[in-house]
Amino acid sequence: MSPNAPTRVCILGSTGSVGVSTLDVLARHPTRFAVFALTAHSRIDDLFAQCLQWRPRFAAVANSQQAKLLQQRLRDAQCGTEVLMGEAALCELAAHPDVDSVMAAIVGAAGLAPCLAAARAGKRLLLANKEALVVGGALFMQAVREGGATLLPIDSEHSAIFQCLPEDRSVWHARIDHIVLTASGGPFRTRDAATLASVTPDEACAHPNWVMGRKISVDSATMMNKALEVIEAYWLFDLQPEQIRVVIHPQSIVHSMVVCRDNSVLAQLGTPDMRVPIAFGLSFPERIESGASQLDFRSMGQLSFEAPDLARYPGLQLAWDTLRGVPGSTAVLNAANEVAVAAFLAGTIRFDQIHSVNALTLDAVRIATDEACAVDALIALDARARAEAQHQVKRLTP
Predict the structure, then answer these.
(1) What is the DSSP pairing of strand 7-12 with strand 33-39?
(2) Using an 8 Å Cβ cutoff, are 40 and 67 in contact?
(3) Angstrom distances, CA of residue 162 to CA of 116, 154, 167, 285
């Protein structure tokens, strides 16, 4: 690629909230970036519209029926985008020799394989899929090292930590005492805990600060998203579990903090807009316009912080428990949570039973000592955990 050629970007999960925000940032820099590939799981109409606007070389969908339909619609619209399908296509696009940067915005464990492919191919990998680290942390970080990939976290909390640290990773251990991940507390921070059993999916998805998909919105309401982020931080920053702390910050202005050895605190602040960490990841080590509004400190008001209530958010403790448990425990937790949240959104279990499914699944699934050592073994463990979680859902269903 010539020095002045645009950076070619593959967006895995382009129709989700992070994918749409990524395209918004790219649109602000039309000569700097080019969209090489877009992928979607089920929002085919949205993907079709994105292909007409961006004219990527490739688009990928989940199955052959979707692929056939999308390809015909693109031909009728005289759009030359080639349509691929399945997980193999995601991995192929993530590792494609003509791709420079990969935005990994697929939700859930389904993002692990293409993230591994991008890492092994040495891409600039913008990681918005926390489950790749939660499920396959050791394998994933090994792939990043061996492939020579540039790993840039996109979750606002981990991007904040990364922005507070020097580019030279070799000095991180000497400087960090611990990190503090901030959490909004979700929509039920002040709600009477006795009423949480009656929470509806629409209520759980009404986040006070962020616009997100339904699954991650429910995770925010239970604070399971923060549990997964604790696990993600463990791998990203090579910390001990006790070096990762969580504090409730309802305003979502301070996105996270690094407490240094000398007890000074470094923090990254900004409006709650995912375009900020996305723009940082796309342009690192430079800074480009993100489209987010600036903070006005004169009118910002009070910034408050409080300890998380583990009785209200019982799933949060599972993060530290699984990090100290048998390798593979975090994969079981993630699988159980995906099943539990899906069951809640479908109206099968109550909001307060999400934690029950997660805890019962962790207790029931026995993990062999080598199950976290290979991709196939992790996939099999993920399947066993999901089956057990489905069993627990049925037990809890009236």
Answers:
(1) parallel
(2) no
(3) 21, 10, 9, 11
Q: In 3D, which of 51, 46, 41, 118 has the Cα closest to residue 78?
A: 51
CA 141 to mean position of chain CA atoms:
16
**Interatomic CA distance for residues 181 and 374, integer angstroms:** 30
Residue 2 has a pLDDT of 56
- Report pLDDT digits (tens) over 87-102: 999 999 999 999 999 9
How many residues are listed for the chain in this entry?
A: 398
Beta strands in the chain (DSSP E): 7-12, 33-39, 58-61, 82-85, 101-104, 124-127, 150-153, 176-183, 244-248, 254-260, 265-269
Q: What is the pLDDT of residue 211?
A: 64
pTM: 0.92
Coil/strand/helix, residue 171: helix
Q: How far apart are CA 119 and CA 148, in angstroms?
A: 7
Per-residue pLDDT tens digits for 350-364: 999 999 999 999 999
Is 360:353 a contact under the CB 8 Å cutoff? no
Q: Judge whether 161 and 235 are in contact, CB under 8 Å.
A: no
Give bridge partners of residue 37 from the DSSP assignment.
Answer: 10, 58
